[in-house]
Amino acid sequence: MSSDGPVEPRWHDPASDPRPDDPHPPDLTKNDPQSEPVCPRHPGRVSYVRCQRCERPTCPECQRQAAVGVQCVDCVREQSRTSRTVRTAFGGRPTDGRPLVTYTIIGLCVLVFLLQQVPTLNVTNDLAFVPGLAADEPWRFVSAAFLHSPSFLLHIVFNMVALWQVGPALEHLLGRARFVALYLISAVGGSVGFLLLADPSNPFSWYAPVVGASGAVFGLFGATVLVLRKLRLDTRPLIGVIVVNAVLGFVIQGIAWQAHLGGLVAGAAVTTVLVHAPANRRTVVQVTGMVVVALVVVVAAWVRLATVASI
């Protein structure tokens, strides 16, 4: 017979059973050193690995790799619900450092430029912006920004270099979605700028094909100036670049300075909304503001085309 005395019975407490809706099921073996540690979510599985956050045993199925050690799936889920989404200074989602949107735009422009070299495709005539064709073929407002002069290589080279100089920084600060919206609205603004200043009575003006990303690039120039001013950085070098390019538009024949002006105004309007939106309502104000700017650009084009059609 054993002389250790009577063995006290162990009473089971139903309250200690894990509940399906409990985000942190209790560790039933924590206070019992004689029992093997088991996963609270899977009581039939023994696990000597503990969560770095709640210190409960966690089986391989419930383990999630953390910066140090592992965490259980419950802690990871709870942390994702309570942690705030990181944003840039202007409300965008931080990128991984790669300017994917800038890469994509440059790639599309180069691809379209190569297609323009194939005469049978007729890409330039089908996609260039022509004021007299804008009412019936509105896609030209956007497509022209991805075309360049097929016979002047420096046209695409200058525009892509300028895009590469300002695009990555803006994409990083604004976030990819806002950067895409800025670029497209600036591109359309460039086409609308040319439309508003074209002379319907002059066939060489009203039916002149316009191509190039320079309207959108000028929009990015204007955006960069406003972003730098908001960050209290020196804007004089970039303003000098804008002035020089604006002057060249008047001096060199064949440059559509109207598109430069339209893109610059549209890009500045969009960026004004992005950089001055209040932090507590930033996303709502930014999205609403960009929609309003886009509508103003579209309405301006519609009014111009309707006015010319009524003459």
Provide the fold topology.
Layout: E1 63-65, E2 70-72, H1 73-82, H2 100-116, H3 123-127, H4 140-143, H5 153-174, H6 176-197, H7 203-206, H8 214-230, H9 236-251, H10 257-276, H11 282-310
Antiparallel strand pairs: 1-2
CATH architecture verdict of the largest domain: Up-down Bundle
Q: Which regions have little confidence, pLDDT < 50, spanning 5+ residues?
A: 7-18
Round the Cα radius of gyration to an integer and report it.
31 Å
| Helical/strand content category | mainly alpha
Summarize the structure.
With 311 residues, this protein is mostly helical.
Protein model, in words:
It is built from eleven helices and two strands, in the order ββααααααααααα. By secondary structure, the chain is an all-alpha fold. The protein folds into two domains: 27-60, no CATH class; 100-310, Rhomboid-like fold (Up-down Bundle), CATH 1.20.1540.10. It has a two-stranded antiparallel ribbon with strand order 1-2. Helix 2 packs antiparallel against helix 5 (153-174), helix 6 runs antiparallel to helix 10 (257-276) and helix 6 (176-197) packs parallel to helix 11. The longest helix has 29 residues, at 282-310.
